[in-house]
Inverse folding.
């Protein structure tokens, strides 16, 4: 692999992943459409809007020219918001070649088509889905740039591509595991943001740790239920991309999803919340996607359903909690067992 990597785009997570690579003494080109941001990175080694107060490595160079960003590299990392992935991948297309490792670190779906991000990228590049790797797991950009110990998972339909991605990113503070279940890793990374919104909302309403533990546990149950129905391995949801990322997102003030939920719980409107964030809150689009997916697969996702009502049907958050607490009596053991999953897949 060449010693140069390209990262498309320069938001919080793109800049943090670029820093991981720069710490491995790689030459890293970060592509951004924003020329002021490009100049700030190149002249001041800062990206203050997205990572305030962080000094970036001089190995990290920004450019607004896609050709310049990706020329001379066979490792490209796409870290655009889900709403922009198709557009960014289409800009990469003229420079894509068979030997290029393409890793994406976006957590969401293409809302209109309900496609996963790896599908969107492979469609735009005109390549097999096995050429794409997803990187996911519990990882706040703010902690990665401080070199706090962090573990993530990379998954691909092609294990060799996943190993290449593991080699690319692994360093002393950034530990990378592989996983063969790309579908499960992508679903877990996207869907946990809904539960993080709900956990923030619960905190904003003034509810306590009992409520949050309930949301995390039952949230994981509904993520696993839909994931297994769609063909994912249930064990993926017990791993870094599942419970790991759910915990880090739903319990941390770094999380934009948790913060947005908190403000909604305090009674702020969705418009007010969005205009004050200034960064992507993927859980909002993902709640819409999950609402449609749960209907399509006829799988109950009660927490996502109530979040949908709060976000898009003006339901008062407190009433949403009452609706969740007042559901029909259930047994806890409805989550599909590994045995059942294996029977379905043999
Ligand atoms: N921030 C984190 O800690 C973190 C960690 C893991 C995964 N992620 C995921 O990474 C993805 C990106 O999140 P982020 O935190 O970097 O977002 P961000 O809000 O910090 O930055 C988004 C960037 O995308 C750019 N952008 C938006 N639309 C664009 C377009 N059409 N063309 C080109 N650039 C465009 C913006 O200008 C901005 O620089 C999300 O899916 C998120 O869930 C984030
Ligand atoms: O800040 P959030 O809520 O987008 O979450 C960031 C990451 O997904 C945490 O792993």
């Amino acid at each position: 692999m060449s010693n140069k990597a390209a990262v498309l785009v320069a938001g919080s997570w793109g800049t943090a992943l670029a820093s991981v690579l720069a710490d491995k003494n790689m030459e890293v080109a970060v592509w951004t459409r924003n020329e002021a941001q490009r100049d700030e990175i190149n002249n001041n080694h800062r990206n203050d809007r997205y990572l305030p107060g962080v000094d970036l490595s001089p190995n990290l160079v920004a450019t607004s020219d896609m050709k310049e960003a990706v020329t001379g590299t066979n490792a490209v990392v796409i870290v655009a918001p889900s709403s922009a992935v198709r557009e960014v991948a289409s800009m990469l297309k003229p420079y894509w070649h068979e030997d290029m490792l393409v890793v994406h670190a976006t957590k969401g779906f293409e809302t209109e088509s309900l496609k996963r991000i790896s599908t969107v990228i492979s469609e735009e590049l005109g390549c097999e889905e096995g050429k794409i790797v997803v990187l996911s797991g519990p990882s706040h950009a703010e902690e990665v740039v401080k070199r706090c110990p962090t573990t993530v998972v990379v998954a691909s339909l092609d294990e060799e591509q996943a190993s290449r991605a593991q080699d690319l990113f692994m360093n002393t503070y950034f530990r990378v595991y592989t996983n063969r279940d790309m579908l499960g890793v992508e679903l877990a990374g996207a869907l946990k943001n809904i539960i993080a919104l709900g956990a923030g909302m619960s905190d904003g309403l003034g509810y306590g740790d009992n409520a949050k533990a309930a949301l995390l546990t039952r949230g994981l149950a509904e993520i696993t239920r839909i994931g297994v129905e769609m063909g994912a391995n249930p064990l993926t949801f017990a791993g870094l991309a599942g419970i790991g990322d759910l915990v880090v997102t739903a319990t941390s003030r770094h999380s934009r999803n948790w913060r947005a939920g908190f403000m909604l719980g305090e009674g702020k409107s969705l418009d007010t919340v969005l205009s004050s964030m200034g960064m992507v809150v993927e859980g909002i689009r993902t709640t819409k996607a999950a609402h449609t997916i749960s209907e399509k697969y006829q799988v109950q996702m009660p927490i996502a359903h109530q979040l949908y009502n709060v976000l898009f049907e003006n339901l008062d958050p407190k009433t949403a909690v009452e609706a969740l607490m007042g559901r029909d009596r259930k047994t806890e053991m409805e989550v599909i067992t590994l045995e059942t999953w294996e029977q379905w897949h043999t």
User: Anything to note?
Assistant: The mean pLDDT is 96. The chain has two domains: 4-180, 189-344. Residues 9-14, 33-34, 50, 79-82, 84, 87-88, 105-108, 139-141, 279-280, 282 surround nicotinamide-adenine-dinucleotide (ligand 1) (CB under 6 Å). The radius of gyration is 20 Å.
